[in-house]
Amino acid sequence: MQISNDDYLQYKPLLFSLGYRMLGSVAEAEDLVQDTFLKAYQVNDEKIENKKAYLCKMMTNRCLDLLKSARHRREQYIGPWNPEPLLLENDPSEVIIQKEGLSFAFLRMMEHLSPDERVVLLFKEVYGFSYKEIAIILEKKEEACRKLFSRAKQKMSQIEGESLNYETNASIVYRFIHAFQTQNITALFEIIHENVTLYSDGGGKVNAAIRPIVSLSNVLSLLYGVVKKAPNDFFFEVKNINGQPAIVNHMNNKVQSVISFYIKQDQIQEIYISMNPDKLNF
């Protein structure tokens, strides 16, 4: 049974969404999808009974290999690391399967998981695979996969309760924008948690805070300072980034940054500013 062009069209979104969630990188996920299919086209094996599982295993192995080398690059990364923003307004069906496991908060927490824990968590919680299917992909026993899932869930418990309702979150983002523009401190305290943390990702390519900024007063001071230095052609839009409303800032005729949010109990708990130009290719 061979992999066909129809299989490519059918399973490409699944493999991309898996790769992006594993790596937090659009470019790396796209490269591994292409590599997976190039290798799969060359295989003529009658033992391939389940193409979906076969392709998922190939893609997973490539992600695991890359993670081992990527972990070293993360250690050398300058300042906080944020996942590459994924714009979903063009044709979401081409790049994503569902919104679960896609938010900035989720992907940043994934960095605290081992590669195998990432695989089990995604396949079990996001894609609904059984432990038997996951065990085949990882070539481990089912019981080992159960333990990996339990550990992963425990590590990810910090973001339990995150709101993924786009309309509700958009309302909060627009309230934040209005309160920020009018310098309505009372409204900002209602919308933003007093211990909010801001993660600014410049990757050493542009000026950005190299440590997380903690507390509402410190975060607002930084944001107001940035706005004061904005050029005359500055403008922003609210876009669907990673399945959630985010602020896309434009300066000097290009995307300058993306501001994403972790919202829980109708309050902004964390703010992520992505400024690394390598991650703003849209």
UniProtKB/TrEMBL annotation:
One GO molecular-function entry: DNA binding
InterPro entries xref list: ECF_Sigma-70_Domain (IPR052704), NTF2-like_dom_sf (IPR032710), RNA_pol_sigma-70_dom (IPR014284), RNA_pol_sigma-70_ECF (IPR014303), RNA_pol_sigma70_r2 (IPR007627), RNA_pol_sigma70_r4_t2 (IPR013249), RNA_pol_sigma_r2 (IPR013325), RNA_pol_sigma_r3/r4-like (IPR013324)
Domain RNA polymerase sigma-70 region: residue ranges: 8-71
One biological process term in Gene Ontology: DNA-templated transcription initiation
Database matches in Pfam families: Sigma70_r2, Sigma70_r4_2
Domain RNA polymerase sigma factor 70 region 4 type: 105-156
Assembly and oligomerization: Interacts transiently with the RNA polymerase catalytic core formed by RpoA, RpoB, RpoC and RpoZ (2 alpha, 1 beta, 1 beta' and 1 omega subunit) to form the RNA polymerase holoenzyme that can initiate transcription.
Listed NCBIfam families: PRK09636.1, sigma70-ECF, SigX4
Name of this protein: ECF RNA polymerase sigma factor SigJ
Organism field: Pseudoneobacillus rhizosphaerae
